[in-house]
Amino acid sequence: MDSTKPSSEIAYEFSPLIRVYKDGRVERFVGNDTVPPSFDPKTNVDSKDVVYSPQNSNNSNALSARLYLPKGTNNNNNNNKLPLLVYIHGGGFCIETAFSLFYHSYLNALVSACNVVAVSVDYRRAPENPVPCAHDDSWAAIKWVASHVNGSGPEDWLNRYADFQRVFFAGDSAGANIAHHMGIRNGREILDGFNVAGIVLVHPYFWGSTPVGNETTDAKHRAFFDGIWRMGYRSETNGCDDPWINPCVEGSSLASMGCARVLVFVAEKDKLAARGWLYYEKLKESGWKGRAEIVETKGESHVFHLFNPNSENARVMLQQIASFFNLQDKP
What we know:
This protein is α/β, with parallel strands linked by helices. The chain is 29% helix and 21% strand. Strands 4-5-7-6-8-9-10-11 form an 8-stranded mixed sheet, with helices on both faces. Strands 1-2-3 form a 3-stranded antiparallel sheet, with helices on one face. Helix 2 crosses helix 4. The termini are far apart.
């Protein structure tokens, strides 16, 4: 047998998303197409890519983010800076990037609707880089962003246009999971001059070993979510009740959430909706001093706004997120 020939033995199969072979090879079937930064004439939003970590902890490639700037920003002065959004993409920790068409299009629309400066974080993906690599990378990006609070950081757009007293974290699916953990970490590791006013979690990827609410008990669906997590984390210590995936386990640190408000979106037909509701309830009961809100979109499934961005429900979601940001501006 030719030892140099790639193995055909499959370790994990999650069609139509990803396949992992026992020799470590990974085939991703979606989320591979990327688009360059550009000025988008439809939304009048400009974008560019920046490096936030020249060399990560594994001595591999530099880590980057995509910055977005809305129309009219060049006319702003230092007394009229814009809220700053740090956005973290989804994809089960294992697919998609900050540079995919899905996310580039969505960030253009989001930045335009909300009138914010945005940093869309790219991070190392599982299974090659298991959780919590994605979380560590996202925190490194946040610290890089925070290095601009005195107006002397390496990126001019952040120095000139970002209001570091009005910072928001947001993400969808696995990105919402990461955004939650960034909020917890922000509550523990205070960054000087960097005020996280709110966090938006869209269809968060949380899970657990025991079904909750009206969560499906169908063996096929449970095996899918269990398997994706075990592929991405590679630890049997707590399984699907590890705090990285289940923030509602006993002894969790929800009370240390480092922001004033959290907005959770769930979709009625999403298999993860019950976890979003549970998270909302547990956050309110945790002793956290902030305010939690939840919005359920009827008749929709997981991350519908990415697949059908021109739908009425997707437009309503954009408006609700914009209102959440704008409410922070009121005394």
